[in-house]
Amino acid sequence: MHKAALGYIRAVDAVNHRIGRIVMYGIFVLMGILLWSSFSKTFLNPTLWTLEMAQFAMVAYYILGGPYSIQMGSNVRMDLLYGNWSLRKKAWVDLFTVLFLIFYLGVLLYGAIASTAYSLGYWGSEPMSFFAGLITGSEEIGRTERSPTAWRPYLWPIKTVMIVGIFLMLLQCTSELLKDILRLKGETI
């Protein structure tokens, strides 16, 4: 169990670290989009795609960078009491609170999967069977959802990014849970 937990922690931390280090440069993509938006509105004809593309870039930056933030401990915390606690007490509190976060992320992941299925034209109530049917060939993509703006981009790509980001966050929270358990057993990670 101990070796399996350490292997899981190392694998998840490595994946989220690499993705986080790449995604952190997404802020420059966002800045480029907004700079182009300002330039085109001032000197050229305003473009339709810049505001919505900036929103999509920010969602990807935030969602895919979240697991890295949790891993680095740079997420926002209420340190009024927490900062003065011992490592053991912090591990107990983190162990307890991460369970709520894992539950919340599970609900959020199911909602993201259902929303993505809807954006691919599925109108039923079983999104998991829809995706299983896509793999086996028994389902087809229907009328895909588009944004109601003038640009009208498809929404399934950003919803897919949300699924990936929430799933990575769920994996990272499970890794943090295992780290807390190992800390409570007195082991160094």
TrEMBL record:
Domain of life of the source: Bacteria
Predominant place of localization: membrane
Family: Belongs to the TRAP transporter small permease family.
UniProt keyword Cell inner membrane present: yes
Protein's UniProt name: TRAP transporter small permease protein
Keyword Thylakoid: no
Membrane topology: Multi-pass membrane protein
UniProt keyword annotations, A-Z: Cell inner membrane, Cell membrane, Membrane, Transmembrane, Transmembrane helix, Transport
Domain Tripartite ATP-independent periplasmic transporters DctQ component: 30-181
Transmembrane residue ranges: 21-39, 51-70, 91-113, 154-173
Functional description taken from the UniProt entry: Part of the tripartite ATP-independent periplasmic (TRAP) transport system.
Location in the cell: Cell inner membrane
Summary of subunit composition and partner proteins: The complex comprises the extracytoplasmic solute receptor protein and the two transmembrane proteins.
Taxonomic source organism: Parasulfitobacter algicola
